[in-house]
Amino acid sequence: MKKYQMAAIPGNVKQLIKICEDMLKDFKNPDVFYDDYGFLKYEKKFQKLKKKFVKPAIKISSRKGKGRACQNWVAKKISDLLGFAYGKDEMIAPREMGQCGVDIRLVADAKEQFPWSVECKNTESWSLPSFIQQAKANQLDGTDWLLFLKKKGHEYVVVFDAEVFFDLLRLIKGKKGR
Predict the structure, then answer these.
(1) DSSP 22-69
(2) Which residue in 5, 27, 31, 134 has the fewest CB atoms around it within 10 Å?
């Protein structure tokens, strides 16, 4: 049986699906529901309801591909900003999927010029507190955490600590001579 994503389904429909699934498990006995009401007819209605409201879960390989695309986009942007090459064995490199630590590996001068520990998320449902917690847990010494978020059909969004934001504004203000 396929796994399904239930996050985008209204609560009452989730409950109905759960009840129907439980009924199907309980009544798989061939002697039950094969009368005038017809168990197969009921099962077809249930499958139709499920197709309407439940979409199959995204494959793990597709999830990793989405995450990799986000990491590559961020690595390229940082590379363009700093003028260093990015890719495997370069000063700026996206972390391989499944490895612990920051999502963008910065080495030597790249880390000095871009003092951020980057976490990338490309997902349809955002759990901001847990994303921030992960970014903070992976934060390297001498850097601030930085979170890039992407959702299908939307632009990239960046999240970072508010105090760091105001520190940056003070630096910009100081450079403008105000």
Answers:
(1) HHHHHT--TTSS-STT-HHHHHHHHHHHHHHH-EEPPPHHHHHHHHHH
(2) 31
